[in-house]
Amino acid sequence: MCVATGSYSTTTAGLTLAESWNGSSWTVMSTPSLGGNGADILYAVSCTSATACTAAGNASQVPFTESWGGTSWTIGSNPQVGDGEGDFDGVSCISPAVCTAVGNYQTGTATMTLAEQSS
Length: 119
Fold this sequence. Notes:
With 119 residues, the protein is an all-beta fold. It contains no helices and ten strands.
């Protein structure tokens, strides 16, 4: 299975998007969104099997992840870092339980590197 992630907009919100490829067509997968005052975006995804994917991005400028368990996406980590603003720009998984998400966060006027690993 191949998975692509991103976002789409309605008249009131920006929402997460994931689609799967079965070899002949794309199918929209239902993904949860955190909501809030901004857009929810999934910038990257890594899958170790058809039943194990992790997607990373931001929700209202806060880094977060979602996990695919074969039947549904669930919201994962939401680290509280710096001034609370940032995002995950990439993710790589070596197994269903071990993934590293990377991105950045704001603290004062500085942009800092962010890396989180599940275990």
